[in-house]
């Protein structure tokens, strides 16, 4: 099965740090282009949208880790924390850009936006839910919280759905791009209830002689 | 784009012009795609010549105008603010002529109350009009009340920055109504019809709670999903140019046009 050669164990730690470094490249290059006036048209909005979109992409990548292991037997779980934290940082930067660069910290307008406009309310809720997940993303919290940690981190399903909805509701016409993100999130969420049955079936296959196994 | 001769006019705002590269590369023209850069990127196959605009309906003398006829109207340069419904704005030096001069040629009947406009449909040249996903029903349609259409500020533009319009800006001829949100400025017009009924408008059909028929720029009436109180001026350099400014009632043209709406509830007729 394993078509991809496994990364030697001694590079695991370094590969996680490389992921963090790579993960921040879109934000840094976007900020540089925007600050130097090289983003076309509405630079602040372009940057704000870039950060939000990468937040959603990292959320989707986080949700891919489990199905990749289930379906292809590739275990990338060591990257899941980094992907989740990257999602958190991007969503936080997306919100900060809206707050500072876009709205100039005009709090009455910002609070009215959050209260009155459903797509902003939903986005804000997703950010708020991401905070406890980011705060408990360390080994100590995992040990201390035990089973409660797993329950808490199921919030990511709601967050991903909220993120995709926030994106779709923010545009004037829901186009192919929004549809792709909604579809990806939907498939990844639907995998969760299917997964126990699939894994059970898979284990039953392994117990039988190879000529009887389904392909 | 070819150079256009135009006489200066008194209609010009005293604000810095939006750079030409922003005016021609940051556009909403869904016939060429949903992204702001799509119209510039995807409109290369569009053929704006030859062109005819048919003007008819409740008029005494219906007529087909070739582009060469339209270019014979005395052209003026009008420097207008342009406020998009998405809360960004530009200052654009248009070249065009009053819509009223065109309407005079066809002699609207006394019964005509509105003017309806229609954009060309050419799926083979406009990628947004073909394929599985089409964002809006075509043709794009718009309308004005006759008194709005006859207002001296309302022009048909055939150029900007002293040159003929590029495809992404609505070549060869488009509407410019500076006190209304940009989507009223229908592009690549092929048909103008005088009528006694309020004509349909594309964005109003697509989302009636978000886009009204009038679509006058109004900082006091929010779009359901964003505030219209302020706007972002395009092309004022990067993140820290201080480009957010207050939106003005009727986009700063209240002195000229507010009287058109005397006694109307502008929150209801948004």
TrEMBL record, chain A:
<keyword id="KW-0408">Iron</keyword>
<feature type="domain" description="Ferric oxidoreductase">
    <location>
        <begin position="51"/>
        <end position="163"/>
    </location>
</feature>
<feature type="transmembrane region" description="Helical">
    <location>
        <begin position="152"/>
        <end position="169"/>
    </location>
</feature>
<keyword id="KW-0285">Flavoprotein</keyword>
<dbReference type="Pfam" id="PF01794">
    <property type="entry name" value="Ferric_reduct"/>
</dbReference>
<keyword id="KW-1003">Cell membrane</keyword>
<comment type="function">
    <text>Part of the MsrPQ system that repairs oxidized periplasmic proteins containing methionine sulfoxide residues (Met-O), using respiratory chain electrons. Thus protects these proteins from oxidative-stress damage caused by reactive species of oxygen and chlorine generated by the host defense mechanisms. MsrPQ is essential for the maintenance of envelope integrity under bleach stress, rescuing a wide series of structurally unrelated periplasmic proteins from methionine oxidation.</text>
</comment>
<protein>
    <recommendedName>
        <fullName>Protein-methionine-sulfoxide reductase heme-binding subunit MsrQ</fullName>
    </recommendedName>
</protein>
<keyword id="KW-0472">Membrane</keyword>
<dbReference type="InterPro" id="IPR022837">
    <property type="entry name" value="MsrQ-like"/>
</dbReference>
<feature type="transmembrane region" description="Helical">
    <location>
        <begin position="121"/>
        <end position="140"/>
    </location>
</feature>
<feature type="transmembrane region" description="Helical">
    <location>
        <begin position="175"/>
        <end position="194"/>
    </location>
</feature>
<dbReference type="InterPro" id="IPR013130">
    <property type="entry name" value="Fe3_Rdtase_TM_dom"/>
</dbReference>
<feature type="transmembrane region" description="Helical">
    <location>
        <begin position="53"/>
        <end position="71"/>
    </location>
</feature>
<keyword id="KW-0479">Metal-binding</keyword>
<keyword id="KW-0249">Electron transport</keyword>
<feature type="transmembrane region" description="Helical">
    <location>
        <begin position="12"/>
        <end position="33"/>
    </location>
</feature>
<keyword id="KW-1133">Transmembrane helix</keyword>
<keyword id="KW-0288">FMN</keyword>
<keyword id="KW-0813">Transport</keyword>
<keyword id="KW-0349">Heme</keyword>
<feature type="transmembrane region" description="Helical">
    <location>
        <begin position="83"/>
        <end position="101"/>
    </location>
</feature>
<keyword id="KW-0812">Transmembrane</keyword>
<comment type="subunit">
    <text>Heterodimer of a catalytic subunit (MsrP) and a heme-binding subunit (MsrQ).</text>
</comment>
<comment type="similarity">
    <text>Belongs to the MsrQ family.</text>
</comment>
